[in-house]
Amino acid sequence: MASEWIELRGQDLLLKICDQPLQNQKLLESSGDSPEIKAGDAVLVDFTVHQTNDKDNTDGPLCQKATSWLVVVGQNEIADALDIALTHMLNHQTARAWSTAKYAYGPHPRTYSWGNDKYTLPPNSSVLYQITRAMKVKDTSRLNPYFTLQKTNTRKMIANDLYLCEWPQRKDRALRLYEKSAKDMEVLVDGTYFQQVGTDHPQYKEARQLMIDSYNNILALHMRAKQYGLAKQAGAALLKKDPRNLKALLRLAKVAMMDPKTSLDEADSAIQSLENAVTYKNRDEEEEASKLRAAWKKKKANASS
C-alpha cells in the first residue's frame, strides 16, 4: 500500500513509499539485520528518472535509467536526491522521489541516449525517481573479491554516465570515480588473495581489466578536457601496467598531435610506439595508425613551410 508524500528537504525533495514488504522485513529482523537503509550500507538499486513538474506524473521524458547499481549510501557517488531517499527507505521497498534541480541535476542540461532515442533534460529541471529495487547487500570483501568488483563496476558505470551525459559540469566527479576505481583494482590485483589463488583466476582477469579500463578512462577524460599534460601522465601510468595497450597508445599519439607543447621528437616517438604495437592482423588498428601517421606528416610539413 502506497504512503503519502513526505518532505525530506522541504518542498525540494519529496518521497512516497510504494509498498511495505513486511515478509522481507520479518526475515531480516529474524536474522538480526536491521531493515533500515543507513549511510554506509551497500544497496543494490534499480531506478529510472523522468522529467516532470508534477510529482504524480510518471510518464515524463526519460533522462536516466540504471539497473543493478551497487552503491554505498552517503559516499557522494550518486545524485543527492537518490542518496537521501535511500536513507528513508527500508530494505526491499520501492518508492518514488520527486526532486527539484537542487538535489537532482542542478542548473545544467543532461543528454541521455537509449537505443535510437535521445533526450536533453533542460537546466534547472524537476524530476521523478522511480526506485524499483533497493536491496541491502552484505560486504563480503574479506572473503573474496566479488563485492569489491561489483562496487567498482558500478562506480565505472556511474562515471561513464557522467562523462557521456553531464559533460563538462560533472567532470571532476567522474574523474574521482575513475581514480578510485583504478586505485581499488590496483590494490586488489597486487593483494594477497590473488597471490594465493593465482593470476589465472577469472576474477583476477576481471580486476586487471577494470584497472586498465579505469586508467584509460582517466586518460580519455583529460584528453577531452584538453588537459594534455595530465593525459600524458595518465597514459604513462597505464603503460607501466600494460606496455602494449593499443587504446592508450592511440590516445597518447592523438594527444601528442593535439598538444601545442609537444616537440616533434615526442610526437614522432608516440606515433612510432603506436605503430609498433599494431598487430596488422586487425585492419581497423592498421588504418587508425596509418591515418595518424599521415596526419602527422602533413602537420610537420605545414609547420616547416
From TrEMBL:
Family matches, as PROSITE patterns: FKBP_PPIASE (PS50059)
Annotated SUPFAM superfamilies: FKBP-like, TPR-like
UniProt KW keywords: Isomerase, Repeat, Rotamase, TPR repeat
Keyword check for Nucleus: no
Catalytic activity entry: [protein]-peptidylproline (omega=180) = [protein]-peptidylproline (omega=0)
EC id: 5.2.1.8
Pfam families recorded: FKBP_C (PF00254)
Protein name stated in the entry: peptidylprolyl isomerase
Organism, as annotated: Fistulifera solaris
